[in-house]
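Ops channel
N.P.: pipeline sanity check, posting one input/output pair.
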């Protein structure tokens, strides 16, 4: 039996130090593995949220494409016609039942920013997702600005519909460029998400 006068051998001390070091290393390794697993799970859940939201926005645009294209053609016909440019002539020529702007879903984006889960994605994929949401936001701003500036109650008080028709024509030209561009971005992004996302548990 060892006592204060018979300290442990150097080999015994080294063995204890090694065992303690190995134990700490394994604990750190297990902790890192657990963190990495949580990050993967959070990233995967985030991708599923993004996919669901992007498909929703994609369908929202697709359901409005035909109407926006037809409305643009009708307004051009109205502006080029020889008829008086009055509201009375506007409605029969232009089959107008609102501009039907797209209200983009962005809950998945806001959640990803709040919990920083975007940082768990591959940089190239995170960039592609960010690009889509930036384009959506720019388009949403265009829609909101037009609705606030042009489609006010006083707009329909004037019987001369020339200004209204020209404003709507310019707006729809932009809409009919932006919407197909967004649909292309969705078509490019969804396969990228599907390639890395795994089924949720």
């Amino acid at each position: 039996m060892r006592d204060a006068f018979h300290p442990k051998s150097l080999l015994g001390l080294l063995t204890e130090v090694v065992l303690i070091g190995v134990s700490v290393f394994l604990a750190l390794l297990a902790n890192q593995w657990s963190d990495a697993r949580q990050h993967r799970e959070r990233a995967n859940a985030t991708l599923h949220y993004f996919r669901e939201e992007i498909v929703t926005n994609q369908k929202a645009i697709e359901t409005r494409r035909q109407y926006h294209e037809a409305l643009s053609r009708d307004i051009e016909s109205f502006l080029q016609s020889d008829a008086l440019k009055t509201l009375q002539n506007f409605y029969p020529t232009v089959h107008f039942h609102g501009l039907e702007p797209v209200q983009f879903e962005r809950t998945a984006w806001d959640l990803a920013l709040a919990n920083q889960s975007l940082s768990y994605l591959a940089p190239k994929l995170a960039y592609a997702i960010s690009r889509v949401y930036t384009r959506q936001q720019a388009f949403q701003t265009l829609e909101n600005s037009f609705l606030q500036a042009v489609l006010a109650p006083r707009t329909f008080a004037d019987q001369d519909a020339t200004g209204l028709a020209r404003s709507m024509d310019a707006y729809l030209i932009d809409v009919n460029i932006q919407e197909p561009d967004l649909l292309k971005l969705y078509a490019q992004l969804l396969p990228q998400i599907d390639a890395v996302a795994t089924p949720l548990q």
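N.P.: looks fine end to end. The chain has five helices and no strands.
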